[in-house]
Amino acid sequence: MESASRREACPFDGKRVTGVEVVRDGKLEQFRAGCEVVLSLGAIQTPKILMQSGIGDSGQLRSFGIGVIQHLPGVGANLQEHVLLAGCVWEYARPDQSRGACGDATFLAKSDPALATPDLQAFVANGPFLSAELSGQAPAGPAWSITPGLVRPQSRGQVRLTGAKHTDPVDIDLNILSQGADLRATMECVRLCREVGNGAAFRSLTKREACPGPVGDVELEAFVRNAAVPFWHYGQDGPGRPVGRGWQSSRLWHRRPARCGRLDHAECDYRQHHGALRDHRRALRRDTEG
Ligand SMILES: Cc1cc2nc3c(=O)[nH]c(=O)nc-3n(C[C@H](O)[C@H](O)[C@H](O)COP(=O)(O)OP(=O)(O)OC[C@H]3O[C@@H](n4cnc5c(N)ncnc54)[C@H](O)[C@@H]3O)c2cc1C
After folding, report:
1. Cis peptide before 212, with omega less than 30 degrees from 0?
2. Distance from C-alpha of 284 to C-alpha of 290, rounded to nearest angstrom
3. What is the pTM of this model?
4. How remote is the CA of residue 215 from the centroid of ligand 1, in Å?
5. Which residues have C-beta atoms less than 6 Å from ligand 1?
6. 44 alpha carbon – ligand 1 mean position (Å)
7. Is residue 153 within 8 Å of 176, Cβ to Cβ?
8. Which domains does the chain have, with CATH numbers?
9. What number does the ligand 1 atom closest to the CA of 8 have?
């Protein structure tokens, strides 16, 4: 299949996916699956194809005139993205100190010592790393930055359709920092980064802290919201969420592709654990061989 091809929809036999439909050179082509269909189009495009193929929240599908094959409200839900801040900037003590790139040094930390694993990650970067909202804060001289980040967010967003056609874009609502815990943890990360950046180890490099400076909690919250930029780590997560069962994309960490081929759609759900996936593959093999 040419990489320029677009996977448009999944044809069905009842509730069973039988292949994929592709528009190539302006023509619709169908490919029949020999064993199974694995959708692995990333966290945004995978739910789009599922929904436009009739698998998703029935209300949303019907509102776009899409026939419902399986009501599965988790499709498109539970979208998550790490939080990255572009705004903690220091001016070099001397212009000739500027060197290095982005991400030469990093650290992981916990916003709360009671956490089992770190939820914060920051990088040291050369240059003034500032969001569009904070671009006016760039110092006149060469600068360096620390980029606070939240890597275990609780906030969840949603991918929604805007239409039934493959050319219709999706509505992506990352909804980051909507949970108070995420906001508090991210503010804590800024405090930590300021402590590091203003600490003794960096003193010889630093003329002054350009941004955000010693602000109070209200200003710090505004700073966090203005400094937030994409981390390009979006994905969709697992079972047991309030929106119910769904799918997941094959992205970071232990994510699994949405596997639909020889499964009924009632089973086309998350395969979170290796064991479950292994069992599933065994069952598939039995199914194929039998
Ligand atoms: C700038 C940047 C830096 C990153 N840095 C890191 C990092 O340092 N560490 C890290 O772990 N992660 C990093 N990531 C995130 C990581 O790259 C992604 O999370 C990961 O690639 C997602 O994998 P995926 O298979 O789900 O989706 P993708 O890699 O996006 O793969 C989806 C594929 O499906 C194709 N596709 C989509 N729609 C269709 C369609 N309709 N028909 C046919 N094909 C289609 C796309 O062209 C693409 O090739 C970074 C991302 C970016 C953008």
Report:
1. yes
2. 10
3. 0.79
4. 37
5. 5-7, 40-43, 45, 232-233, 249-252
6. 10
7. yes
8. 6-79+237-289 (3.50.50.60), 82-161+168-229 (3.30.560.10)
9. 41
